[in-house]
Design brief:
This protein has no helices and 18 strands. With about 200 residues, it is an all-beta fold. The strands form 7 sheets. A 4-stranded antiparallel β-sheet has the order 11-10-13-14, with no helix packed on it. A 3-stranded antiparallel β-sheet has the order 1-2-3, with no helix packed on it. A 3-stranded antiparallel β-sheet has the order 8-9-12, with no helix packed on it.
């Protein structure tokens, strides 16, 4: 074998192999060959072209979350700006369920995106991968886990009012049943400065 510093040449028969080193990530390279015998060079072969592989994204982080969205960003790891990314999420750690809000076909080339149409008060695990120009996908990034916020409860009303008791009612406003903890405070004045009682209720 011979080493030129940028590649390695291995001689064998009937196959000859040359490994090119120090190439850029997800870039198309073309190569042609000729043979030189006795100082006479043959005609060039037809060119062959291939993309180097895309690198798996790294440093995936969740930047913010609302009741229905999560914003994430990641490091391109040397992939050029034209590299498409796929974003997927799961609510069970990708054991059985996965959704792909940004598929390769969507041509997401930015290194940040906001995942939308999520359920309030739900924990999501997200991951990202890249694809090269030959449509070969990279491995996935290390996943990140975060939760959407619960919605504010709505329509609080009193019912079953007696001389010494009352019942507080409200709607969950789309929060998942059994996941949200609601905190109530009962005050003895309209300025909400005289606390009578408070409690946390799982609804």
């Amino acid at each position: 074998a011979s080493d030129t510093g940028v590649g390695k040449h291995f001689t064998s028969t009937p196959t000859l192999t040359y490994y090119q080193l120090t190439l850029d990530t997800n870039v198309a390279y073309g190569m042609v060959l000729s043979a030189i015998v006795g100082g006479v060079e043959s005609t060039l072969t037809n060119p062959v072209t291939s993309y180097t592989l895309a690198a798996a994204p790294s440093a995936l982080v969740s930047n913010s979350a609302s009741t229905a969205t999560i914003n994430i960003s990641w490091d391109a790891q040397g992939n050029p700006g034209t590299t498409p990314y796929e974003v997927s999420y799961s609510t069970d750690g990708f054991a059985l369920y996965a959704s792909t809000p940004a598929a390769f076909a969507d041509n997401l080339t930015a290194v940040t995106t906001t995942v939308t149409s999520l359920t309030p008060g739900t924990t999501y695990t997200l991951r990202v991968r890249a694809r090269n120009g030959d449509l070969i996908a990279s491995g996935f990034s290390v996943a990140v886990t975060t939760a959407t916020r619960f919605k504010d409860p709505t329509s609080p009303t009193f019912s079953a009012v007696t001389t010494a008791a009352l019942t507080l009612n409200w709607t969950d406003n789309g929060n998942p049943v059994g996941r949200a903890t609601y905190t109530y405070e009962l005050h003895g004045d309209a300025a909400y400065t005289s606390l009578v009682s408070s409690a946390n209720i799982v609804g």
